[in-house]
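FAQ
Q: What does a multi-component entry look like?
A: The components come first, one per line:
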Amino acid sequence: MFHSKEKFKEEFAKRLEQAGGNKEPRLAYAVLGAMVREVVEEDWIRTNKRYKESETKQLYYFSIEFLIGRLLGQNLYNLGIFTIVQEGLRELGYSLAELEEMEPEPGLGNGGLGRLAACFLDSLAALQLPGHGCGIRYKGGLFTQRIEDGFQTEYPTDWIKEMGNWEIRREDLTVEIPFYGRLHPHLTDMEWVKAVPYDMPVIGASNGTVNTLRLWQAEISERPLPAHKDFEEYAMETAAISDRLYPNDSLVTGKILRLKQQYFMCSASLQTILKTLPCPVRQLPAHVAIQINDTHPAIAIPELMRILLDVEGLEWEEAWYLTTQTISYTNHTILGEAMEKWDSHLLSALVPRVYEIIQEIDRRFKAQLQEQQCKEEAFKKMSIIDDGIVKMAVLAVVGSYKVNGVAQLHTDILKNREMKELYRQFSGKFHNKTNGISHRRWLIKANPELTNLITESIGQEWIKKPILLNNLNKFAIDASFQEALKAVKQTKKNQLIDHVGKAGNSPIDPLSIFDIHIKRFHGYKRQLMNILHIQSLYDRIKEDSTFRPYPRTFFFGGKAAPGYEFAKQVIKLINAVASKVNKDPLVRKHIHIVFVEDYNVSHGEKLFPAADVSEQISTASKEASGTGNMKFMMNGAITLGTLDGANVEIVERVGKENAFIFGLHSQQIMQLEKHKSYRAQDVIEQSPELATLMARLLHGEFSDGSENISFIRKQLVDLNDPYFVLKDFQSYATVHEEMVAAYANSAEWWGMSVKNIAESGVFSSDRTIQQYSDEVWHLEKI
Ligand code: 26Q
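Then the predicted structure of the entire assembly, as tokens:
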């Protein structure tokens, strides 16, 4: 361990010398990585030893995605040596920031759900709780997005090659996973796949705790293949399991490879957990908690049953009791197309014994419902297997002891609508855990300037107890604090300009309002509404010589699933409007559009701190929580959004006067949907402005006409605008005007900004994790 800058410099220089001594940043990066790894290793071994000896209860967070982002900087910070290393390197002629950029981005997730898993691991370690991640070591993470001629194009990314310092292959912990086979007279003819774990350290902030993220890699097994199976084919199929992350974040496609991935990671993790259990298997729930991140790992329920029945030899009742006291489930969506459903034939072919167990779980549950004289409709809704389809969400609720949504509104919708029948059946299982974000990554690491300002003003206790950010409330009307905050924001805006300027964007006005909309592209997230509104501003500037609004820069960033044509057309439309707007000498003084290519965690770290306005404009009821909204808030941006997901709780905290809220409420949306009483055409007919805008859009007069908008047209016209873009449009335009007016009053604006930062502490994932631990997992800090 290097406690001082001088020691660090000495050691670093020595190793650099041994490694060849050239001045290449690449070499410096490699040397630094190896040094940090050694520091971590001591704590890691010590933590594991303590866990083992104390036999304390362990949590395993099962997730198909962990969107961890770059590790070097965060790890240095958590080890408490960021400043030592930064300054030491500078004195030796290196820039730490530059070395950080050399690390490939580990994009092992799509978006919110995967990033949440990463924030949770950071918080578990920070709180010194025994909690570990279990997932897949994808050779390639999410695709890299390039914008070519305004269109999204996808390039494969292999992140793994250069991650050597952050992972260790544990050949000794290899397990074998059974696929396929025949059940009768007894299970034979399986195809085995070898699962090899790679462990990554998860470092607790300045506390010596190092937990583990265990990612499984699929390799060919040495066991014999069934006679009918061709080896080449088997080898290809096996490598495919951990080759690539599925790039969909809201559409399930029912592909067999996806199911293989799910079973592979669940079985490998469960086998290992049971093998290393420090107690008789009958005490499993006292020593192990398993949280499943959405239904993607729900197959862990029948797989745990299989192991308890077939390997441990327990009776059904006892195995079921242990399973349903160990596993708990988090739901992240109510969108119909994102609900996982598997064809029975597919399941029974791929994992015959597991399917047999699902059938038995279903049979017993149905018998129980019948005994209670459950009504037909409710019975159907609660069937795990319904008409040859296995509904994973129902399996997950029936097979776990706790079920939660990710924001209060979302949990209420689950209880009162989506899972009404299951809620009635198992009311004690349901609870809410509003999401959170790691304030260490999203404030301290991403925004050291703001961190310093906060600490100078209220001391440093908030770092360990982020709720104490509320001590900033007393500075809400303090002119000198406001000035300092404004100066920090300006610094971050300038840095963002430098960052995106490199990508060849046209010059950005650093004094303009930075209005940022970054998230996956999806109909319900309504990037289309944003760009339609920008087009309407353009039209007004052109047509009305008195309309000269305060300068605004609109930033967009986000990826579309490769097969999601509507979303891809929206990306193209944004870029087409951008090239027109940005070229127009008059208009570009007032509005400017920047599309940030390949939005990912690293770009996020630059974008959130620079924002004035946070666009959170989903159709009310559709966004389960959102977490970007919290990252913006913590960095002093003001939410411009609907009352959806966690926005509701943000507004509860800061008050309506410190946010810009518009649009229909979730109840109104759900009513319109239920009664099918919305007609997009009526809205267009009632508004001349909207009528003109739509006519221009539909006739290709928006931009240079190079985009194809057939899917956008279909969505708005033929499908009757399912996400209420047109219905909410006027209200959105109005709230934008209010926002611009508020920005003109500096004292008012920066007061709002202070208030948002002050109230953001509750959205630290430390709070979320403490609640899960107290109410669900019952972990002990050691
Ligand atoms: C499932 C089957 C097959 C292929 C892909 C998928 C799949 C993958 C990822 C389905 C969904 C996802 C991701 C969902 C997600 O990110 N949901 C978001 O979760 C956040 C954390 O709780 C919330 O804040 C967001 O509101 C929610 O949209």
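Q: Is there any commentary attached?
A: Sometimes. For this entry: Residues 110-113, 116, 246, 248-250, 252-253, 258, 296, 332-333, 338, 340, 406, 435, 623-627, 645 surround 26Q (CB under 6 Å).
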